[in-house]
Amino acid sequence: MTMNDLRRIYLDHRIGDQLHYYQRQEGRAQPLFRRLKLGFWIATILALL
Length: 49
What we know:
single chain; 49 residues; mainly alpha; 1 helix; 94% helix
């Protein structure tokens, strides 16, 4: 196994791990984002009435 092979394998795993991490974080943030967005629209509509 050459150094280039090791580098490629390392980068593949590192990028895969980072993508998995950000997908997990996005999944955790989505419910809060939806609640905040709904609260924004409710407050906007009530302010206009």
